[in-house]
Amino acid sequence: MRGKEVFSLSAGLAFLTALRLYLAGTMPLTPDEAYYREWSHHLQGGYLDHPFMVALWIRIGTWLAGDSPLGARFLGPISVLPGSFFLFCAARNLFGQDGARIGIRAVWLLNATLMVGLGCATMTPDTPLVFFTTLTVWALSVALKVKHTLSKVLAWSAVGGGLGLGFDSKYTAVLVGAAMACGLLLNADWRRRLSPWCAVPAFLLSAAPVIWWNKAHHWASFIKQGGRTGDWHPARAAQFLGELIGGQIGLATPLVFAIFAMGLVHAYRRRAEVGAYLLCWIALLPLCVFLQHALGDRVQANWPAVVYPAWALIGALSLVRVRWAVASGCAIFVLVAVHAVYQVPALAPNKDPVARQTAGWERFASDAASLVQQKKADAVAAEDYGVASKLAEAGLKVPVIGLDPRWQFLGLAAQPFQNVLIINDIHPNSPKGEVICRSYAGHAIRCYRVTVSAVKDGVVLP
């Protein structure tokens, strides 16, 4: 490994990290991020939608950098640096003399994707998931390399621990564990070894807070997420498959996606090496699960984030140069960042995904605060959890209530309020009342009906 390559990689990571931090501090929080910020104020072992790790990261970030968009997202851009180091070390452990070169390529490829480039400038469950998945792959590479019995026990325990922390971030981490288990159990040599079983108790210990919370709440989160597997609309399979593939081409960026695909061919050819063999399992089994799910229901583009570290290592095995793919991916990220911050080029609100998520909330909250004073309301309630979260972030002088069932799992004591400002989507059966809109560039993004009513136990009284 030449010093020039190390310098170029270090400079590139420093630039991308600085850009992600700038983006993290400049963009307003999205409704989902504001929702996770509410979680961070009520830390517990789990929530209806996801495990607790994203809330913990936001809590730590706001402690370090203040209760601001930068603070909420702070650990995202920062985590890419140790994550990149773990990815490099994993390649060096797995691929011997050529490992350093492969590691540098893998780090470049992962950082060139929008999944990591843009995803780690925001704070969602995928942000810690990608980091802990990378940590798990590194621990796996150590477990495959070490010879001493105690070292093997410790390394496989680290694999289980990293996998458990990934599970604490998002439930899709179990797909990586299932892939590793299948790969090891189907390999005659590894099937007879005892050390990999050390990963199981370490995983259970790391995942214990999430399991305990679900047990205490009638398995609500497991049932909600597991219930997705029951959706089945085969008539729309072509649409869902197209969205899944198109989403990955977009989030990986086109040239990096092509290198991922080409790398898989070379990884398969090297399947006699246990490292390449297990990487194929980690990359392909979750993908097969998502493809199967797409036959009957929509797969969100971010769901495959869990396999991106493995895909980066596999892509680095390809024989083609990655320079242009990395350059194009980084250029796309810079263009997206410029648009997100400066709205260049300007797009119509209905065609601007960034504006639909982040624009107009400050004025919207100000209008809501004015109505609170006019109506002398003692609380504000919204059916949409994102609207409730953004109003809570705005710091209204009265309590904010979410009427969505999600809010009931935040551990907040239910209080009766007699004069509540109700903000809900407009629909044909909406009661008469005032309308306030969230607007951008003079165009309404979304409008809401405002009424006043009493609320008890999170339910609007007639």
> Biggest β-sheet, characterized?
6 strands, mixed
Q: Summarize the helix and strand pattern as letters.
A: HHHHHHHHHHHHHHHHHHHHEHEEEEE
Amount of beta strand: 5-15%
- Radius of gyration from the alpha-carbon trace, in angstroms: 23 Å
Mean pLDDT: 91
Q: Which structural class do you get from the secondary structure elements? A: alpha/beta
Unreliable residue runs? none
The geometry reads as globular
Level of helix content? 55-70%
**Count of the domains:** 2
Give the terminus-to-terminus CA distance: 71 Å
* Tally of strands: 6
What is the count of DSSP helices, taking H or I runs of 4+ residues?
21
Organism: Neokomagataea tanensis
GO molecular function: pentosyltransferase activity
Membrane topology: Multi-pass membrane protein
Main location: membrane
Distinctive features:
462 residues, alpha/beta, 2 domains, six-stranded mixed β-sheet, 61% helix, cell membrane, pentosyltransferase activity, Glycosyltransferase RgtA/B/C/D-like domain-containing protein, glycosyltransferase, transferase
